[in-house]
Amino acid sequence: MEMDSKYLMIYNDIVGKIEKGKLGVNSKLPSENELMDIYGVSRDTVRKALNLLESNGYIQKIKGKGSFTLDINRIDFPVSGITSFKELAQRMGKEWKTYVQKIEVITADGYLAEQLKIEEGREVWEVVRVREIDKRKIILDKDYFIKEFIPSLTKEICQDSIYNYLENGLGLQISFAKKEITVQRATEEDKGLLDLKNYDMVVVVKSHTYLDDATLFQYTESRHRPDKFRFVDFARRQR
User: Fold this and answer.
1) What would the DSSP string read from start to end of the chain?
2) What is the average pLDDT value for the chain, to the nearest integer?
């Protein structure tokens, strides 16, 4: 058996063990020497398999300590599309729940006025929701809607889907969004509302969402536990 097929055999064998749960999250793989003995291959073949495992997100190699398995049960979060949390959760077929922490009309301060391109003092809906998937609270959504577009808003609507209400209840046409993704240190609010485990960072997606007439009506800060999401996109080279 040539080296190419040997390293793929090792790769596929370890991937199978990870995906079937035979190797749990943060499990340490055997050393390079042990893998050489287990599979009867050279060090170069073992390293090639480990490199492929690392590049595909199955393991993390830590210098001086060895190779450890990563959590592969991540949720694909579409960067390009405009998808409600309810739509995302239903598409995945996972158990989900939304907890409404706050729903109230506030007056826009300088920061919100800048984000929503309105004058300070304009009325804005502030909606803060915690999203739970598979009994783990992993998203904190902070939404701000210009009130003139949404005369009324209830806890029941916020627990279900605001986008469904806007499109099917109010007849608004949501068209496009501009998004910015950053990694930030977790705030005390994040730590209090989310199941962050030992993570002290969160992935923050800031979105400015527009109607079909190019009117900006929503600003969102969506704060995610970093190990639970894989942000995906489709890109085509423009010539």
Assistant:
1) --HHHHHHHHHHHHHHHHHTTSS-TTPBPPPHHHHHHHHT--HHHHHHHHHHHHHTTSEEEETTTEEEE----PEEEESSS---HHHHHHHHT--EEEEEEEEEEEE--HHHHHHHT--TT-EEEEEEEEEEETTEEEEEEEEEEEGGG-S---HHHHHH-HHHIIIIIS---EEEEEEEEEEEEPPHHHHHHS--TT--EEEEEEEEEEETTS-EEEEEEEEE-TTSEEEE-------
2) 89
Place of tokens 């501009």: 178
Domains of the chain, by residue range, sit at 3-69, 75-232
Residue pLDDT, tens place only, 149-158: 999 999 999 9
The CATH T-level fold of domain 75-232 is Chorismate lyase (3.40.1410)
CA dihedral (146, 177, 195, 129) in degrees, to 10, reads 20
Answer yes or no: same fold for 3-69 and 75-232. no
CA 139 to chain centre: 8
* CATH number of the 3-69 domain: 1.10.10.10
- Is 10 within 8 Å of 46 (Cβ atoms)? yes
Look at 211 and 90; give whichever has higher pLDDT: 211
